[in-house]
Amino acid sequence: MRTTNIRKITISAMLMALLIIFGRVFLIPIPWTHGNVNLCDAAVLLASLLFGKWYGGTVGGFGALLLDLISGYANFAPFSFLAHGLEGFLAGWLYTRTHNRFLALGVGIVVMVAVYVVANGVLYTWVAGILGIGTDLLQGIIGAVVAALVYQPLKRWGNNE
Fold first, then answer.
1. Buried b or exposed e, range 128-157, using 16+ CB within 10 angstroms
2. Count of the separate structural domains present in the chain
3. Is 159 part of a structural domain of the chain?
4. Would residue 86 count as lying in a domain?
């Protein structure tokens, strides 16, 4: 039991580090939303599939918060905590309940996009929020594809409860 928890925590910490690396290295700036498209969702969704809602939410929330703080987007940090935390939590919860990977990933992406629409609307304009839907969806879909591909060989490490 203790070994399982240590393994989950260790792998989740590595996924949080990967989230930050993916968010800093693999990014495309998006001028109309003052943000970027990156691969951080891959780590969030992979943690959700492997270990469930609490680990997915923690990796997503705190990883995205730290990513924004070190990337100079402190104004987005609370929104990213909420967007990616909910994305990870809901994807992990749904996958545990339904075992439908695509439903879980899809709902996680939609929630992330919805939070960022509000974030862009509050921080900039509602037009920026609407314009960001496409790029946020693209980021989420690419992250989900990467997570789904990587999940298959790694699922023996997971214990999604």
1. bbebbeebbbebbebbbebbbebbeeeeee
2. 1
3. no
4. yes
* Count of positions (residues) in the chain: 161
Q: Is residue 42 a contact partner of residue 25, using CB atoms and an 8 Å limit?
A: no
Q: Among residues 48, 34, 32, 87, which one has the least CA distance to residue 64?
A: 87
Residue 158: which pLDDT band, with cuts at 50, 70 and 90? low
Angle of the 40-51 helix axis to the 101-123 helix axis, nearest 10 = 140
pTM beyond cutoff 0.85: yes
pLDDT higher than threshold 70 for residue 47: yes
Mean pLDDT, residues 42-59? 96
Q: 156 — phi, psi (to 5°)? A: -70, -20
- Domain residues for the domain of 103 are 2-154
What angle is formed at CA 32 by the lines to CA 29 and CA 38, rounded to 5 degrees? 30
How far is Cα 51 from Cα 39, in angstroms, rounded to an integer?
A: 19
* Rounded distance between C-alpha atoms, residue 72 and residue 69, angstroms: 6
